[in-house]
Amino acid sequence: MTARRAAGWAVLSLIPLTFLTLAVLAGQLAEMAVGVGIAAFLCLVAYAGVRLLDGGEGR
């Protein structure tokens, strides 16, 4: 895995981490699962979008 690819995954992992942190700070642990689901969906959509823009072809 290249450094650029690892950095991309690290940035994408900040999305669910942000939802989790805000849910814990607000004391809304029951809603945390919904936040994680939304974050996972956003990560999947972002990944699919990048693959489509990049062409998705192996090099």
Query: What order do the helices and strands follow?
Result: HH
Overall residue-averaged pLDDT value: 81
Classify the beta-strand content into a percent band.
under 5%
How far from one another are the termini?
A: 13 Å
Low-confidence stretches: none
Largest sheet report: none
- Cα-atom radius of gyration: 14 Å
Please work out how many helical segments DSSP would assign. 2
Category by helix and strand content: mainly alpha
Number of domains: 1
Please give the number of β-strands. 0
Characterization of the model:
The structure is a single chain. This protein has one domain (3-54). With 59 residues, the protein is mainly α. Helix 1 runs antiparallel to helix 2 (29-54). Helices cover 85% and strands 0% of the residues.
Task: Provide a short characterization of the protein structure.
The chain has 59 residues and is mainly alpha-helical. It is built from two helices and no strands.
